[in-house]
Amino acid sequence: MLGGDQEEGGDSCVLIAPIPGVADAFALRDAKNPDAGTLRFAGDELRAAGLTTL
Q1: pLDDT of 6-53, one tens digit each?
Q2: Helix (H) or strand (E) holding 35
Q3: Residue 28 and residue 37 in contact, taking contact as beta carbons nearer than 8 Å
Q4: Full-model pTM
Q5: What average pLDDT does the chain have?
Q6: CA 45 – CA 36 distance, rounded (Å)
Q7: Helix (H), strand (E) at residue 45
Q8: How far apart are CA 6 and CA 25, in angstroms?
Q9: Most CB atoms within 10 A, among 21, 22, 28, 41?
Q10: CA–CA distance, 24 with 30 (Å, rounded to integer)
Q11: 15, 2 in Cβ contact below 8 A?
Q12: Which of 26, 23, 50, 49 is nearest to 38 (CA)?
C-alpha cells in the first residue's frame, strides 16, 4: 500500500506492508528515507486512523 502525495504526477513515499507470521500487524516506512527505520502497527490502530482497506 502506498500513501503520501496522491496528486496526479506526485510521488508516494509511505509504504505499508503486512508483517509475515504476525496476524493483523503491519510495518510502515518512508520509501524516500528507508534508513529512518520502520514503525509497526496493529491492524486495529491503522483502521482507527482511517485506513479501512486493511
Answers
A1: 556 666 788 999 999 999 999 999 998 989 999 999 999 999 999 876
A2: none
A3: no
A4: 0.71
A5: 84
A6: 21
A7: helix 43-48
A8: 24
A9: 41
A10: 20
A11: yes
A12: 26
pLDDT given for residue 25 in this prediction: 96
SS3 of residue 29 by DSSP:
strand
Q: Name the residue with cell 513515499.
A: 13
> Cβ-count burial of 22 within 10 angstroms (0-12 exposed, 13-18 middle, 19+ buried)?
exposed
Q: What is the largest CA-CA distance in the chain?
A: 35
d(CA 27, CA 25): 7
Helix (H, G, I), strand (E, B) or coil at 54: coil
What DSSP state is assigned to residue 22? S
